[in-house]
Amino acid sequence: MTVDNELGVLDTEDVEATMKDHFDDIRGCYHRAGKAQRYAGGRVMLRFLVGGDGIAQDVLVIESTLGNYDVERCLVEVGRRIAFHAPTGHKSTTFEYPVEFRSTNQLAVLDADGMKVDHDLSVLMPQLAVCGQLAALDASAIIYIEPNGFPGSVGLSAGTTLDEDVGDCMVQTIRRWKMSATLPGHVMRASFNIPPVIATAEATPRRSASAAGHRRRR
Fold it and tell me: What's the rounded mean pLDDT across residues 153-170?
């Protein structure tokens, strides 16, 4: 018995032409950053999982220096609607595609002091446990701490599928954190990992019935 595990191949020119047809939608995603456009900018690396018919079965944000979950999720939504030419042999395949966004630079961005951020995270990270498991592996988070001490923008990425409902919950929770790493007139940027299992004093995670019954995947 022969097992054929080869992936299909997409023509690079066809991929570029197809993506170009969707550039307006891709660029439009940045509007979802809202006021964070003043400082949030960077590259988002997307991984497309394409079926044998050329339809995008899923899109993952595997790396991001942008730091804005709303924009990252929009890119996933746009990517899922894209249809490419069928790969060779009509076999499923994957490829990675970078998207770059530039902020308006209205606020200067500096990297936050590691010790202050580490201390804040040790106190605040357990709050994320009630949201549930974000991914099967460690996920990466980037936050932009505004001069008032609150994160004005939060981004998430991972090398595997993210649970969108959990991501929504975590982003909203993180944006309520009061951070000690601040500087007047500047935005402080910090990055950290979110493990699959977060230690917490909570006995039972609090999840609504609707969230438990319907879990979106990103």
Answer: 97
Q: How many residues does the structure list for the chain? A: 218
79, 101, 123: which is the final residue of a domain? 101
Q: Within this chain, do residues 116 and 184 fall inside the same structural domain, yes or no?
A: yes
Q: Are 160 and 60 in contact (CB under 8 A)?
A: yes
Sort 64 into a burial class: Cβ within 10 Å, 0-12 / 13-18 / 19+.
buried
Q: CB of 172 within 8 A of CB of 131?
A: no
In this structure, the answer to whether residues 115 and 202 fall within a common structural domain is yes
Within a domain: 215: no
Q: What is the DSSP string of 36-99?
A: GGGT--EEEEEEEEE-TTSBEEEEEEEEESS--HHHHHHHHHHHHT-BPPPPGGG--EEEEEEE
**Looking at residues 139-151, what average pLDDT do you find?**
97
How many domains, in total, are found in the chain?
Answer: 2
Residue 217 lies in a domain: no
Half-sphere exposure (Cβ direction) of 117: Cα atoms closer than 13 Å: 18
Is the residue at 192 inside a domain?
yes
**What is the rounded distance in angstroms from the CA atom of residue 47 to the CA atom of residue 44?**
10
Is residue 5's pLDDT more than 50?
no
What pTM does this model have? 0.86
The answer on 130 and 88 residing in a single domain is: no
